[in-house]
Amino acid sequence: MKLSKDDLQLINLASGLVNPLMVPGGIISEVGCALKTKSGHVYKGVCMHLVCGLGFCGESTAIATAATNEGAIDIDTIVAANKFGVIPPCGRCRELINDISPKGSETWVIVDSETKLELSELLPRAWDSSQAMSAHLEK
Predict the structure, then answer these.
(1) What does each C-alpha distance from 107 to 51, 52, 54, 117, 121 come to in angstroms?
(2) Does the model's pTM come out above 0.70?
(3) pLDDT per residue over 11-21, tens digit each?
(4) Domain CATH code at residue 75
């Protein structure tokens, strides 16, 4: 699907966060992320890659910020960018988007400077967390 004006604004927000910075334990801000919730709020995050093996992606930071501010979140659109431009989310982030949002598979993911896809196209056989939660709650 073609990008909207709102999508281009999200790309600009994510791209504006890219500012690789060396810290004592690694590097931060190589990837920036912006997401818009169905309620219209926008949240941002950056990645942290630390030599001790800890760290997380920009998408994780943006999602955690949204959850901190809104509680349960319903992501409408998400985008990540590095110094080369828009990048699609890694597999771990695809699963996180799918699991955190009520209709995660319907989340729009901007995958390059011209295209957005529903998460279901990037994660066609997603793990069904609702089955795991049902089994857990029945115990």
Answers:
(1) 32, 32, 27, 8, 10
(2) yes
(3) 999 999 999 99
(4) 3.40.140.10
